[in-house]
Amino acid sequence: MTLLLTGGNGLLGNELRKYFPNCLSPSHNELDITDFNAVNDFIKKNDVKQIIHAAAQTSIRLCEDKKNEAWKINVEGTRYLVQALQQVNPNGYFMYISTACIFRGDSEMYSEESIPNPVNFYGITKLIGESIVQALSNHLIIRTNFVGKKPWPYKKAFSDRFGNYLFSDDLANAIKETFESKLNGIVHIVGDKKLSMFDLAKITTPNIESMTMKEYSGPHLTINMTLDSKRIKKYTISQM
User: Fold this and answer.
1) Residue 185 in this model has a pLDDT that exceeds 90
2) Measured between alpha carbons, how far is residue 37 from residues 44, 71, 177 in Å?
3) Hey, which residues does 224 pair with through a beta bridge?
4) What are the tens digits of pLDDT across the range 139-179?
């Protein structure tokens, strides 16, 4: 059964390809998801019956600065994949990787039943993507929060911004397990421990410096990204 993985060269996609070695994972040059004809032709030619949609513009700052581009990737790209699958294999399975940033972030432990209320354009585009995917009868929306298991990309990390994070390899393993269970609807794949971004960064970068949100200047951020999972188990974040 042909599986298409989008975003296969991203932090999560690279890990997912290890768990789905037989999937089709075209590069952006091989498949531009913002081109409906290209998407439709690819899915039809390869008789795609399953999709894991991990491609997205995830930079909050870039989504704010380049809204049209973010909309094309996160919203239109998702719409084209859904429409093409509906046409080629209407009973196909669509797994959509969403984010904790669809929530406001002024509370904590948001469950699958909590009401979304994003504070930035990135969260808005991902929430609209969720609504598009829900047009399919056979879909699963995965909300999560992850980083790559590599040195922290910045000099400092927030001590007052929180989540129950996973590393991308932890998440890929959890997605594999969830994919095999063929759940439908919405599920949160989360770590079993609340961490500040500073505590998270220290795992890979022991000499990281801390900072607070008062030192930050930029687009609105989701401060508390902790998620609760009522449908599946919580996972333990791996160490170095």
Assistant:
1) yes
2) 10, 18, 32
3) 162
4) 999 999 999 999 999 999 999 999 999 999 999 999 999 99
The pLDDT of residue 1 is 84
DSSP-assigned states of every residue in 68-115: HHHIIIIIIHHHHHHHHHHHH-TT-EEEEE--GGGS-SSSS-B-TTSP
The bridge status of strand 93-97 relative to strand 139-143 is parallel
Q: For 4-61, give the secondary structure using H, E and C.
A: EEECCCCHHHHHHHHHCCCCECCCCCCCCCCCHHHHHHHHHHCCCCEEEECCCCCCHH
Pair 42, 1: CB distance under 8 Å: no
Position 240 pLDDT exceeds 90: no
What is the per-residue pLDDT for 49? 98
pTM over 0.85: yes
For the structural domain made of 3-215, what CATH number should be given? 3.40.50.720
Helix axes 77-88, 121-133, angle to 10 degrees: 10
Closest of 60, 196, 201, 194 to residue 119, by C-alpha: 60
